[in-house]
């Protein structure tokens, strides 16, 4: 995860300037849409290659990408903490991974990697990778 100071942009005088919140929210919205499209394509490929059982994890990723708590926390971090979209995704995922890791439920602990995968995909979409 990036340090808080890396959330700042610099203007022409090399002075720290806060991020453009609306721009970051739009970037996040577009990245979320792209990630959803990628997951749908991946689902179709996996489904045709190995069947529904193998493709079901992709639908779980899609559900996480649409989860209101996950999405709202990212948006809140952008709006209220002035984070870049990348940092908001990374810090939200990190919080969820920690929370799930502290649970006494092995199934839920296994979901940490799912969170990492979805967050990684979102960050890649944000960075145009």
Quick tags:
129 residues, mainly alpha, Enzyme I, Chain A, domain 2, two-stranded antiparallel ribbon, 6 helices, 2 strands, 3% strand, flat, disordered N terminus
Which CATH architecture would you pick? Orthogonal Bundle
- Name of the CATH class: Mainly Alpha
CATH superfamily: PtsI, HPr-binding domain
Q: How many domain regions?
A: 1
Largest sheet: 2 strands, antiparallel
The quaternary organization reads as single chain
Strand content: under 5%
As a whole number of angstroms, the C-alpha radius of gyration is 16 Å
Shape: flat
Question: How are the strands ordered across the major sheet?
Answer: 1-2
For the record, give the distance between the C-alpha atoms at the N and C termini, rounded to a whole number.
17 Å
User: In sequence order, what are the helices and strands, one letter per element?
Assistant: EEHHHHHH
- Using DSSP, what is the number of strands? 2
| Helix proportion | over 70%
Which regions have little confidence, pLDDT < 50, spanning 5+ residues?
Answer: 1-7
Could you explain the architecture of this structure?
The chain is mainly alpha-helical and 129 residues long. The protein has one domain (36-126): Orthogonal Bundle (Enzyme I, Chain A, domain 2), CATH 1.10.274. It has six helices and two strands; from the N terminus they run ββαααααα. The chain has a two-stranded antiparallel sheet with strand order 1-2. Strand 1 and strand 2 (16-17) form a beta hairpin. Residues 1-7 have low confidence and may be disordered.
């Amino acid at each position: 995860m990036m340090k808080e100071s890396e959330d700042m942009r610099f203007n022409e005088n090399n002075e720290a300037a806060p991020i453009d919140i609306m721009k970051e929210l739009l970037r996040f919205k577009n990245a979320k849409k792209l990630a959803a499209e990628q997951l749908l394509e991946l689902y179709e490929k996996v489904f045709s290659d190995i069947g529904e059982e193998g493709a079901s994890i992709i639908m779980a990723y899609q559900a996480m990408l649409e989860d209101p708590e996950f999405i709202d926390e990212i948006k809140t971090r952008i709006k209220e903490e002035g984070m870049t979209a990348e940092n908001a995704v990374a810090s939200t995922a990190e919080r969820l991974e920690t929370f799930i890791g502290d649970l006494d439920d092995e199934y839920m602990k296994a979901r940490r990697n799912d969170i990492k995968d979805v967050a990684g995909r979102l960050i890649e979409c944000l960075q145009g990778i």
